[in-house]
């Protein structure tokens, strides 16, 4: 019985097929269409119905919305939503306006969007952004050892080099991410000034401006290097070097990740008679007062997940500058560039690599504007106690790290303010290797400094601790190519 039914069904289907084919061929009124490929292959979509921002008591919502890569009424594939939300959270955090940023999705009113040939399922969602703002008014106490870095000061622990004062800083002025700074520094080196930066001046939030001025007086000045160590000229009764600066800069930020900065600077320099008699220190040994204009342009493309301590993404910048335009005594051209890349290998394992370099003209440069490696963040780990001066340099850094404590959040109930009681923290162990080369074409400098014009290397192991308000504390043990070991303390990300 079962076999008969099956055969009968097959015969019926065969007759129906022939009849259908005949009817379609004769009348032309019937077409057999396969299912619409879009209805089968198209991934589920979501429509951003509403974006709600919470916790921004001071910051304007438009400043936060500026950092979003998705907007209300956007329709996006569901599979791409987690990555887009992650990028939005990182962008908002990198404004340095918030300690904590979280983004959640909430299912909203849903319906189906009917197309011309198929029905496309469309889910409606709301996005909720919650932020915990930082404290924005900081009368920062200023207490600095006037040395190249903390490690060089530890060699002498000379407290006469202390510069103290206050940096009265107003972040996020008017809730628009504007910054106002009044530096007042006394003691060993003195500085007085004001600077104001407005990141957005137009409705599209793509154009900004900054301006300011300051006056600096130094009791101790680096005049040359011998045996790869800086040589100082000190005058405790007077200020052998005084400089005044005024600047105007324009910002152009056409996208979230790219930025152009145009900077114009006017400088006036007053040197003591003793300084201008030191060979190669200044432009013109006959002039104790001179002034000049400078111009620089910077292009920056920043895709780092966390700017103050990145773990994923990349960063690229290039700076072209010219010191001196119409002054015969001042003429210095330079190009600087850096490229940094960060990988998450798996789970808690990370790798980072960065290369940066500088090229400048002419070869005969005044010493007080000449900088190679050993200043700021331009240094080879293991050579913190040295300066390697030159007109050109190339620096290659590498880090391989493991997150002993991945980023976590501790809530200190004893502190009532949410600006301080929600504390993110993380701890990393890393191994590193750095390579660098400084080229100096001045024979008189090369004769008294052994680290110039040769390949330098440094390697070691370290611990990095990070927490809120962009705090980084690094302790590193390293060995350089000359075999000198050392333990060093730093307060910025290594790459």
Structural commentary:
- With 495 residues, this protein is mostly beta strands.
- Helices cover 13% and strands 51% of the residues.
- It folds into three domains: 1-32; 38-133, membrane protein fhac (Ubiquitin-like (UB roll)), CATH 3.10.20; 137-490, membrane protein fhac: a member of the omp85/tpsb transporter family (Porin, Beta Barrel).
- It has eight helices and 23 strands.
- β8 and β9 form a beta hairpin.
- It has helices at 2-27, 37-41, 61-65, 81-93, 150-154, 273-276, 418-421, 443-446, and strands at 45-54, 75-77, 98-107, 111-114, 119-133, 137-145, 162-173, 178-187, 189-198, 207-218, 220-226, 229-234, 241-252, 258-271, 289-302, 313-323, 332-346, 349-361, 392-411, 422-439, 455-467, 471-480, 485-490.
What do we call the CATH topology of the largest domain?
A: Porin
Mean pLDDT: 86
Instruction: Tell me the helix content.
Output: 10-25%
The CATH class of the largest domain is: Mainly Beta
Coarse shape? globular
Give the low-confidence spans. 1-37, 114-118
Largest sheet: 16 strands, antiparallel
Structural class, by secondary structure, is mainly beta
């Amino acid at each position: 019985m079962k076999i008969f039914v099956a055969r009968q069904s097959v015969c019926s289907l065969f007759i129906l097929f022939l009849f259908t084919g005949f009817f379609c061929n004769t009348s032309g009124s019937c077409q057999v269409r396969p299912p619409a490929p879009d209805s089968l292959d198209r991934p589920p979509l979501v429509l951003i119905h509403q974006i709600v921002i919470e916790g921004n008591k001071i910051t304007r919502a438009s400043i936060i919305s500026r950092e979003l890569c998705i907007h209300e009424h956007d329709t996006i594939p569901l599979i791409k939503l987690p990555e887009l939300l992650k990028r939005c959270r990182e962008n908002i955090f990198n404004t340095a306006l918030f300690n904590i940023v979280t983004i959640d999705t909430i299912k909203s009113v849903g319906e189906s969007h009917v197309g011309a040939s198929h029905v496309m399922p469309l889910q409606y969602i709301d996005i909720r952004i919650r932020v915990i703002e930082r404290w924005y008014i900081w009368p920062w106490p200023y207490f600095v050892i006037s040395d190249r870095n903390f490690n060089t000061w530890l060699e002498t622990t000379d407290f006469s080099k202390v510069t103290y004062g206050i940096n009265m800083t107003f972040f996020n002025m008017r809730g628009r991410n504007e910054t106002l700074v009044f530096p007042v520094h006394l003691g060993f080196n003195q500085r007085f000034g004001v600077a104001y930066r407005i990141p957005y001046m137009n409705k599209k939030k793509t154009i900004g401006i900054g301006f300011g001025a300051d006056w600096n007086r130094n009791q101790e000045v680096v005049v040359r290097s011998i045996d790869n160590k800086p040589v100082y000229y000190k005058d405790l009764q007077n200020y052998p070097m005084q400089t005044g600066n005024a600047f105007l800069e324009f910002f152009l930020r056409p996208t979230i990740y790219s930025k152009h900065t145009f900077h114009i600077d006017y400088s006036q320099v007053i040197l003591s008679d003793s300084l201008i008699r030191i060979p190669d220190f200044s432009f013109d040994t006959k002039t104790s007062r001179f002034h000049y204009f400078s111009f620089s342009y910077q292009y920056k493309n920043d895709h780092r997940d966390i700017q103050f301590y990145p773990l994923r993404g990349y960063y690229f910048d290039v700076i072209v500058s010219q010191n001196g335009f119409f002054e015969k005594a001042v003429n210095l051209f330079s190009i600087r560039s850096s490229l940094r890349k960060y990988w998450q290998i798996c789970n808690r394992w990370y790798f980072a690599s960065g290369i940066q370099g500088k090229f400048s003209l002419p070869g005969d440069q005044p010493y007080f504007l000449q900088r190679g490696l050993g200043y700021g963040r331009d240094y080879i780990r293991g050579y913190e106690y040295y300066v390697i001066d030159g007109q050109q340099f190339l620096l290659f850094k590498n880090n391989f790290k493991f997150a002993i404590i991945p980023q976590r959040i501790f809530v200190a109930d004893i502190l009532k303010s949410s600006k301080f009681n929600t504390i993110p923290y993380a701890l990393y162990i890393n191994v590193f290797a750095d390579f660098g080369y400084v080229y100096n074409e001045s024979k008189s400098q090369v004769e008294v400094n052994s680290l110039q014009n040769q390949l330098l290397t440094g390697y070691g192991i370290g611990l990095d601790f990070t927490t809120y308000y962009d705090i980084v504390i690094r302790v590193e043990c390293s060995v350089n190519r000359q075999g000198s070991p050392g333990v060093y303390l730093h307060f910025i990300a290594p790459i």
